[in-house]
Amino acid sequence: MSVTDLIADQLTVMRNAIKVGKKNALIKRSGIIEGIVEIAKREGFIENYKVIEDNKQGKIKVYFKYLDDGTSVVEGLQKVSKPGRREYVASEDVKSVMGGVGISIVSTSQGLLTDEEAREKEIGGELICRIW
Fold first, then answer.
1. pLDDT > 70: what percent of the chain?
2. Is residue 117 part of a domain?
3. Which residues contact 31 (CB under 8 A, 6 or more apart)?
């Protein structure tokens, strides 16, 4: 089966795993997905991740972060830019998510950046997804 939007598919895999309370999920690997997972780890939304080589595309095992009461740190994952409708934003138009509680991930000429980093560096780009 061909994949039209790899990022959206992998965000859905993670969203579904979080909904049922799984501790981790195995997603397909690509450069941009690895960048998104790295930013999510750096910003404290996931516990950790591990790249698994399989002589093909590879996989990423994502370990989710839960609070003491069992609720996930990640409340939502939303793909913004889609293959049929790309969303581009100027640096001044990159909005914070839920008053700064969440993040937007922007693909820029300097790589993947959070909304805060994009505003700080005054760089716009394609708005990939939101995590809160």
1. 98
2. yes
3. none
